[in-house]
Amino acid sequence: MASLCETCKGLCCRYFCFQIDEPDDYEEFEDVRWYLYHEGVSVHIDEDGDWFIQIMNPCQALDENYRCSVYEDRPLICRGYSTENCEVLDDDYGYREEFTSPDQLAAYARKTLGDEEFEKEMIKHRAKAHGMKKKHMREHLLRVGLLSSGGTAKPGLSSSDKKDKKRGKKKKK
Ligand code: SF4
Ligand code: SF4
User: Fold this and answer.
1) From CA 19, how far away is CA 52, in angstroms rounded?
2) In a domain, 109, yes or no
3) Could you tell me which residues are beta bridge partners of residue 98?
4) By alpha-carbon position, which residue is closest to atom 5 of ligand 2?
5) Which residue, judged by its Cα, is nearest atom 8 of ligand 2?
6) Does the pLDDT at position 156 exceed 80?
7) Distance 72 CA to ligand 1 centre (A)
8) Which residues pair with 44 in a beta bridge?
9) Do 30 and 81 fall into the same domain?
10) Are residues 118 and 95 both part of a single domain?
């Protein structure tokens, strides 16, 4: 009988995946949102709450017959992989969350930070990136429909402003 790998097109050799830091503020969520704009990229949170990025990109050593062309010299990570834990047998990874689009991630960031905090941070960071006043950025974001609170997120001090202020105070000591 053919082994499982002989009937598979080398699924496990067509992507790589590694752990990333859990985003805990707007800027860090923006980094993850940026990853997700790239083709073949997804991000998931596993059952332990750890964050991972997965990049669909076939290994160059996978040959046209879906075999490893460097089998004797394959990296250690490939040596530890077997059909026992492969996705062909079980594709239910028990992820807590999986993000395959920037919008899914943005919705999660909003939920995690709260609408008001999310929008204050959006205004603050985008204003900074464009050298604009927060007031003008808020007006712009309202115009383009990116503020769901309808502009109730006023350009006051956000939690990261407060953190920055504290850092500034510490430095002055
Ligand atoms: S270990 Fe699983 S995913 Fe990898 S080639 Fe074999 S059957 Fe396919
Ligand atoms: S080195 Fe070989 S076993 Fe490892 S991912 Fe590439 S093709 Fe697969």
Assistant:
1) 4
2) no
3) 44
4) 13
5) 13
6) no
7) 17
8) 52, 98
9) yes
10) no
Same domain, 69 and 142: no
Pocket of ligand 2 (CB under 6 A): 13, 59, 61-62, 68, 70, 74-75, 78
- Tell me the DSSP string of 96-127: SEEE-SHHHHHHHHHHHH-HHHHHHHHHHHHH
Structural domain tally of the chain? 2
**Are 70 and 94 members of one domain?**
yes
Whole-prediction pTM: 0.83
Q: Is 10 in the pocket of ligand 1 (CB under 6 A)?
A: yes
Helix intervals (H) in the chain = 26-36, 76-79, 102-113, 115-130, 134-143, 159-172
Tokens representing 70 are 């460097």
Q: Within the chain, how many helices (H) and strands (E) appear?
A: 6, 4
- Res 92: pLDDT: 73
| Same domain for 68 and 20 | yes
Q: Is 1 helix (H, G, I), strand (E, B) or coil?
A: coil
Domain residues for the domain of 38 are 8-102
The least confident of 16-20, 85-89, 155-159 is 155-159
Does 85 contact ligand 1 (Cβ within 6 A)?
no
Say yes or no to pLDDT of 162 above 90.
Answer: no
- Which residues are CB-contacts of 124 (< 8 A; sequence separation ≥ 6)? 134, 155, 158, 160, 161
